Amino acid sequence: MMSTIMWTIAIIAGLGLVLAIVLYFIAEKFKVEEDPRIDDVEKTMPGANCGGCGFAGCRAFSEAAVKAPNLDNIYCPVGGNDVMKKVAAILGHEVKAKTPMVAVLRCNGTCEVRPKTNEYGGYSSCRVMANLYTGDTGCVFGCLGCGDCVSACKFGALSLDPVTGLPVIDEEKCTACGACVSTCPKNLIELRNKGPRGMRMVVECRNQDKGPAAKKACANACIGCGICVKTCRHDAITLENNIAYIDFNKCKLCRECEAMCPAGAIHGINFPKPLDKAAVKARIAERNRKEKEAAAAAKAAEDAVAVPADALAAKPAAKPAEVPKVEVEVKMEEAPKQSK
Prior knowledge:
Largest sheet: 2 strands, antiparallel
Order of helices and strands: HHHHEHHEEHEEHHEEHEH
Shape: elongated
Number of helices: 11
Strand content: 5-15%
Low-confidence stretches: 326-340
Structural class: mainly alpha
């Protein structure tokens, strides 16, 4: 009995040793050589594995960075410029610093200005709710308030305000990974430049209905009047589908659009002083008055220069002097008669 057990153990151990040797040689034969720089790059990553870079995780990002000829289209939003400098040093590439970005909510439809028209009793999820119907308020474009973006954020940068019913973004914690952007079924969150000292202009509305319908659904809605487009002197604002949009790359933060917006849909964020709308409107009116006066003066000057030429053109041409008629009398003298 003992010998049988011993033989069984010996056979199993020998078989395991043989299989281990076979597996070792197979692994050596078919092993894939991996660039050691991948591990070096991965060590510099924040390890969030959020997917904000467009890859499955930090490991996939490291592999793509090593294989890429340059880092122009590869960027880690969580690590930012500091991490990218380290990655560039490992790979021997140059990297351009990018402007820091932050998530921004483009909806200001609080519970006070956007009352509910029905009660939703289903599963608490924005995506589920959006697939079932348009929402529990009159605005079909507004925030649903179930907090999917809050759950998607791995950095605790979002929270749901129980008073307004809207998500609140903590700029200090936001890494601009884009998880909340891809999660929102209404496309209400976008990544925008933080701006100098965090200042930026945003149209906090996505309602594409026409003015009266939009205002009926939400008191803070953009009515698509286009006054902001006409006011902006930097071509930073466009109007499409009854909704205004501010291009943060062109915006000069003058806040004139915010002062002139009759609906109050444009908001300045993180400005040190509150906006004096009356002063800004007076400044715009004075500027417009001076421009009109300058245009009128220029037109008058053009007309003054054009008068002599017009006068000459209008003056009738002088008639040529008439040659006096001279009557010449020709007397026919009779020829003398010849004598016979």
